[in-house]
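Holo prediction — coenzyme A.
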Amino acid sequence: MSKPDYPIRTERLLLRPFTPDDHADLHAYQSLPEVVRYLYGGPRTPEETTDNLKLKMSVTWPEKEGDNLSLAVVHGGRVIGEAVLKYLSEAYRQGEIGYIFHPDHHGRGFATEASRAMLDLGFDHLGLHRIVASCDAHNDKSWHVMERLGMRREAHFRHHEIFKGEWGEEFIYAILEDEWRAARS
Ligand SMILES: CC(C)(COP(=O)(O)OP(=O)(O)OC[C@H]1O[C@@H](n2cnc3c(N)ncnc32)[C@H](O)[C@@H]1OP(=O)(O)O)[C@@H](O)C(=O)NCCC(=O)NCCS
């Protein structure tokens, strides 16, 4: 396991831990109903964003199982979204990625670009064997990102929970380390 040097640079983005100065940019998207439509919870109040920011800043690298690394994705000097890597299992070297972006920055491939860096972190730095991602089956934009990343759809859960007052549908996608290395080479 080797913690990366921040910021991580991709072709168009910088990824780095959140700082207290990021509150305004974070709140700009966490407060939007369209952004949280398929996420647990509703639009955040400024106080809820403050609490969430503290939580994000408390993990700068997933040292142990259960840790949730959330990196700020910076473009043009602003935080335009976040890319997430959760350490699900040490014993079985399993992780999970996620992503949330401000709508002003959708449709340019930024979520895919940032998520590629998170898969690199998971496989190259954390030594994971398998990384999953999940989304509401109606969240087309989200599972399109997973498919662009070369992840395979492993499951479609139907009516597995009540989500925002209705029966939920969930897709689970995954990619193995050797599949990622083959796709990258
Ligand atoms: C999920 C989410 C991050 C996807 O964002 P996105 O901008 O659609 O995804 P990408 O960054 O991969 O961009 C892909 C789009 O950019 C276009 N694009 C433009 N340049 C591109 C490039 N260089 N590389 C890849 N795609 C590019 C693609 O054609 C695609 O457009 P399309 O949707 O019209 O087909 C966004 O919808 C979001 O933040 N939603 C709210 C939070 C959320 O639901 N998160 C997921 C929870 S599971």
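READOUT: The chain has a mean pLDDT of 97.
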